[in-house]
Write a structure and sequence with these properties.
Largest sheet: 4 strands, mixed
Structural class: alpha+beta
Number of helices: 9
Number of strands: 9
Shape: elongated
Order of helices and strands: HEHHEEHHEHEEEEEHHH
Radius of gyration: 20 Å
Strand order of the largest sheet: 4-5-7-6
Length: 192
Amino acid sequence: MNEERATLKRLKLLPVLFRKQDAEKIAPHAGIFLSRAAKKGLIHRINRGNYINSFLKGFPSIEEVACFIRPPSYISCEWALNFHGISLQSPIVCTVVTMNTSVGKNRRIEYNGVMIEFSRIIPKRFNHFSFHNGFYVALPEKAIIDTLYYRGTIAAIDELEFDEVNVNLLFKMCKDYPATLQKKVHALRKLI
């Protein structure tokens, strides 16, 4: 009983999303502490070294988890288009854009039935996002550019709602990208 009380006391010191290094600060044998807490269902392992303090704090959103795993990062592409109401289609992949080098198809993570996919971007293009409820998300214009950059096209483009898109900002942003992408962005004029 004392052991369980000590575990709960330590869990109260941890945020909803934490790393093994955070647990090492409050538990002398962090590996054992995490293993036992996970077996009891007090915490949940997202992937190696990353955990959710679910017993005391509940489960965070997909976006919060996605941005936590590979900082610095922001949500983009189809997920951000849906978030901003530009696309009404529900995406099945949450794309996270990061400067972190641990990316690629082998670095995907599933969380709450959604695949979180990480895409790398160079520092000069790591911009045009804002903070919302614990995570960063691309501006609508940046989400369009990122989708074209990473996917080559936007699915169901004729069904998108461009009312909230700042056309001037969209064209200004695309100047930092290759000419082929700039052509695709300028081709959107017919739809906007």
